[in-house]
TrEMBL record:
This is CbsD-like protein. SUPFAM superfamilies: Hypothetical protein YjbJ. Belongs to the UPF0337 (CsbD) family. It comes from the Bacteria. Residues 6-58 form the CsbD-like domain. It holds the Pfam family CsbD. It comes from Afipia carboxidovorans (strain ATCC 49405 / DSM 1227 / KCTC 32145 / OM5) (Oligotropha carboxidovorans). InterPro entries: CsbD, YjbJ_sf.
């Protein structure tokens, strides 16, 4: 999965998680609040993976450019 895909799925999971928490709070459902919190955390993690992939790609590209200059 690409970094953009990770970020998009992460954003979606965060939004859905927050919505579940709000509905859970409105209805008094601890289960739904918990599910929402977990889904939101999953979204944060997915976004972090996307950002890490971007950072790794950038580092590799910089290293490759530096290697080409040194040849």
């Amino acid at each position: 999965m690409g970094s953009l895909s990770d970020k998009i799925k992460g954003n979606a999971n965060e939004a859905i998680g927050k919505a579940k928490q709000n509905v859970g709070e409105a209805t008094g459902s601890d289960r739904l609040c918990g599910e929402g919190a977990l889904q939101e955390a999953k979204g944060h993690a997915q976004q972090a993976v996307g950002h890490a992939k971007d950072a790794a790609k950038e580092t590799i590209e910089k290293a490759a450019d530096a290697a080409k200059r040194n040849l």
